[in-house]
Write a structure and sequence with these properties.
7-stranded mixed beta sheet, 2 domains, 60s Ribosomal Protein L30, Chain: A, 2 helices, mainly beta, globular, about 10% helix
Length: about 260
């Protein structure tokens, strides 16, 4: 499910009052720009440009990959650390990197670069196309956990794209919550949603509307109820305020914490 909550806010961070904020550390690159697709002989590369320099974001393979690519026609929020790895597809490597598409349509974000022999992706798990029954990054299933009473409270953490609610990648975590709550006969589930803000490399701050914090908590509660936990007691709340961003892994502030109580 995807839903736009508010317009992008790039301004003084109200809670922290940092109108003249210091930019992030030199090792960080946090910016909003158009994504760029570069074709290769194996799989497409995703890049983005900031202050005249190209940065490598990841490759496009299939839904089993950890990297969830952006899409053309929309800008992308990039939050990453400059790596000393060799360039990939002509771009400086950001590793780790977290990206979040911006849902406002932008027709200027339409650049596709043709394949060139000098740009290759030798680590691509397989060429694009049908998987033949197994996804490129598919992992073997983990052994089933044996649960023995007395059961302990357990927390689960979801991180969000900017201004977004639940997405497909959250399904495994929510499945784990349902599984654990069902197996231990949970009595209560507590959900606390948070909104976040990111300190960009130019010193400005990009902040979510704080109202999304409660929407995140309420949405999770409703999903879990409809998934078979409707008889449990639920408490959904919003965290107070926003954490002051420092430009290093600010994406972690866009989150929800689920606590399953025995």
């Amino acid at each position: 499910m995807m839903k736009r909550i508010s317009a992008i806010a790039i301004a003084t961070f109200a809670a922290g009052g940092i109108a003249n904020a210091e930019p992030p550390p030199e090792s960080q690159r946090n910016f909003v720009s158009c994504p760029i697709v570069r074709d290769t002989a194996t799989v497409p590369c995703w890049l983005s440009e900031y202050e005249g320099e190209l940065y490598y974001l990841g490759i496009q393979t299939d839904v089993s990959a950890d990297f969830d690519p952006p899409f053309l026609g929309h800008r992308v929020l990039v939050e990453g650390t400059v790596s000393d790895r060799p360039r990939i597809c002509g771009g400086i490597v950001l590793d780790p990197v977290v990206i979040a598409p911006i849902l406002d349509f932008d027709a200027s974000c339409n650049t596709i670069l043709p394949a060139e022999d000098r740009y290759t992706v030798p680590f691509a798990p397989r060429p694009p196309g049908p998987s033949g029954g197994r996804l490129a990054f598919q992992r073997d299933p983990a052994p089933e956990e044996v649960l023995v009473p007395p059961y302990e409270p357990r927390e689960y953490l979801l991180h969000y794209d900017f201004d977004m609610l639940i997405m497909g990648r959250h399904a495994p975590i929510l499945g784990d919550v349902l599984d654990y709550a069902t197996k231990i006969g949970a009595s209560r589930i507590e959900v606390v949603g948070s909104s976040g803000a990111t300190l960009l490399s130019d010193g400005s701050v990009m902040a979510e509307d704080t109202s999304i914090a409660l929407e995140r908590a309420n949405e999770i509660a409703e999903i879990l109820k409809s998934g078979g936990l409707g008889e449990l007691a639920f408490a959904a709340a919003a965290a107070t305020g926003q954490e002051e961003p420092d430009g290093v892994e600010d994406w972690r502030s866009r989150r929800a914490v689920i606590r399953v109580m025995p």
